[in-house]
Amino acid sequence: MNIPRRAIGPLGIVFVVFFVLPLLVPATIRLLRPADQAEELGEVEASAIYQGEDGSLRMLRVMKHSTAQDDVFVLLSNDLQAKQLLGEPQRIVLPRAQLRQAARLRSEADGQLSLLLNDRQWWLRQPAQSAFAPMDAALRQRFAAELGIGVSKYAFGEQREPGLLEVTSNTGDRYALYWASGELYPWAERLPRWQQRPWAQYQQTVARIDYADFDTDVAQYGLPTMLLQFAQKVRPGEFERWPRLSVHSSSDKQVRAAPRLYQPLSDGFVVSRQAVREAGITKIAPVTSVPVQFSGEVLARNADRVLMRYDETPTTAAEVVLQIVDAHSLQVVWRKSTREIPQLLSDGSVAAQAWPGGFYLSTAMNLPALVIDNNGQTLYDFQPQKRQEHRSDD
Description:
By secondary structure, this protein is of the alpha+beta class. It contains seven helices and 27 strands. Strand 6 and strand 7 form a beta hairpin. It is 17% helix and 42% strand. The protein has helices at residues 5-32, 136-142, 144-147, 190-195, 253-257, 273-278, 384-393; strands at residues 43-51, 57-66, 70-79, 84-85, 90-95, 104-107, 113-117, 121-125, 133-134, 151-156, 165-169, 174-178, 183-186, 204-214, 224-234, 246-249, 262-266, 269-272, 281-286, 293-301, 305-311, 320-326, 332-337, 350-355, 358-363, 368-373, 378-381.
């Protein structure tokens, strides 16, 4: 068919408009769009350190931003040494929570990472996997009688109850969940079940280092704490719980009234025999290399080291001190005031997570601060400008 010469121009315009431009415009837009606008990230909600299969140190960050209808979480994994993103970010979209609830991350003893989103969903990542998987369906199936109707709220247990997940069902019932050991108990039963274990039948013990509170008539100043070493019985496969013990003065009225109820701990101080027995403790003594400290708290621990914090004075928290104690020799290997670590907040608020070679420190605002090794040496400084500002002020 012959097309008149005068019609070629209009037909060419129609071809370009309907066929060529639809192909070119999206590509042009992609070229002009800044790379950082490809995915809105929002703010850091939580972060954790983990080791890859090759031993490399990696960081997982949970970013969050919200729209009118949704909360959008973007999970980023980075190789800290290579300073590059690993794989594609994982994106999780949930209905927007009415109240702001920060995402929470926890490293489990078996290398898994637990993630709580809006305190309404629990996600778990296996060591060999690159993405988190939702656990709600598996939880309802595993504990159909108690949780088959669904879960309304999750919360992590405190540091001395590793592996504990507090679960509230849609019926309002509250449970203590230990996923790794397959145990689920009504919340009120978790402590009695632990105290009533047949400790005499347990064949294994593990060494612990932890603070004990002073509960005496004579120590009425501040919040003194004593660092203790003890051996606690364990049975493989059961959930663990580390006791918070109290130290009493041998001069206390209650001790003088019934001295046989107490076990000598050090010169002038005792501990309740019942508390020791109910915790499955076989040996207990103070860590003599560490003096009495105020508001002492263990932040994190690995197989070789224990990281802790304490207040330097009994009356104010003006200066908080971090220290690392060797879990075997019980000697202090590192100690530093938070004034010397400007990456942390001035009030000393700090969160910590252990990894086999050291510890990861973040601020109370969930901002990454430092990765240190087991001797306290800085491996990664996420806020070097803070250190520079601090030095310039000196």
